[in-house]
Amino acid sequence: MGPNGPATASTGRGVAGPGSQGTTTGPSAGGAPPGPTGPAAGGPAASGGSRPEVTDTAQPRDEHETLIVGVLMAGVLGAGMWQELGQVAPGPREGGVGWATSFGPGDEGPTWLPAGLATTYQKVLAAGEAERLIALQETTLRGLVYPLEQVRRLTTPGELHEALGLGFALRDGAGGTTLAWPADAPTLDVLRFAGLSVHDLIVPRDDDVMPPTRADIPWVVRSYARPWTGTGEAPGSTDDAIIEEFEILAEAAVAIPHLSEIWRLSADGTAEHLATYSARLGVWTATSARIEMSGTPLAHGLHATVDGRSYPAAIVSPTEHVICRTAAHPSEAGPDGAVRTVVANHAITALTGYATLALWQGLRVRLLRVEGAEALVDCVGAEPTAAEALGFRQLGQGEWECRWVPYAEVVGQVQLEWSYPLPTGSSGPAADPALADLAWVR
């Protein structure tokens, strides 16, 4: 578990590329459908043909999407809130030369974040997930996360297994099950990061658990495998050592935050730093090869409007964002296939979030990429039995391996759209978080 180097691309279709959650075998052959809808995830000039009909951009399709809209609208976040962002750089460390870290033993944690974004979280990575992250096959966050300060005392795979209830069954998509994490695993990889707004989170609960009155974070019914408790706390949480349990919405397409770190915890209690992510470069410190891109990405996640055009974006300092565009020639592209440019906040006239949802065989999916007659989809918000019945392989609680499916079978596309307040120093009009501009509210 965990990489000794970056993972190689799979055969057939190849890796899914930025913004995806990995891929399986290549799709079947067929005719070419229209290209994807929404702002081009590689920039305004991205190719892909004409845009398909979007059947509903006026209203959320059902109660689930209404909930998502409410969560995202409540989560409007201003980049101008950020304090000076400390930069991690390679340099000398005890025992040799390596990368400075923020989330390891003895580290004080990030100091540049305001109170609303300063909480550090930890996500337990599934088998092979560290490889997929480092190989840039996964670039967004989803699934269960826990405040790092509440789980930092759990330093071995066995302690995490017991406290977080990691001994649940995973559905393999073919009627069988496997154990998510063995209790006697010699190592376990975790992702540690900061900069996540509480409004990108929900609290997953069982249907017989009543949420507290006036909860700051929405409590949403989930159908997860035991020993999950669905109480808002991990199975090993106690009155003396509370472990709060949250879930990052897949629909929000939260990008890997700048300066996130992957750590490997061993049974002897030691921790090894594997990699740090740079949103400026779009790579991890352990990424060593360009990946092959497949298909045209659809717009999802944070976008910045610069010179009247919308680009995928990430905040990297109090005064700067990085924007991504499609390379005119492969030689221009970085390892993640995009050309990344640092822009000052004053060049940004709007910050907008996007997510494209649809139905495939009656199952709710997030539409990630389109190539020819096939689409790469991510299963979101589905009952486990329904996801398994359509052949999705489970990766974690509420997490499923993405698949290529016939694009003609993807119906009812709806693009969620929400606005973020402009960062300090931008050239656009001031944004009021209470008046977030969602397409279906106008």
Structure description:
The N terminus and C terminus are likely disordered. 8% of the residues lie in helices and 32% in strands. The longest helix has 12 residues. With 442 residues, it is mainly beta. The radius of gyration is 21 Å and the shape is globular. It is built from 5 helices and 27 strands. The strands form 6 sheets. Strands 16, 17, 18, 19, 20, 21, 22, 23, 26 and 27 form a 10-stranded antiparallel β-sheet that branches. A 9-stranded mixed β-sheet has the order 10-9-11-5-3-8-13-14-15.
SSE topology:
Blueprint (H helix, E strand, L loop, with lengths): L62 H12 L15 E4 L2 E4 L21 E4 L4 H6 L5 E2 L1 E5 H4 L5 H8 L4 E3 L5 E3 L7 E7 L7 E5 L13 E3 L24 E3 L5 E2 L5 E6 L4 E8 L4 E2 L11 E2 L3 E6 L2 E9 L2 E7 L11 E7 L3 E13 L2 E9 L2 E6 L4 H6 L4 E3 L2 E2 L2 E4 L3 E11 L22
Q: How would you briefly describe this protein structure?
A:
With 442 residues, the protein is mainly beta. It has five helices and 27 strands. A hairpin with a 2-residue loop joins strand 22 and strand 23.
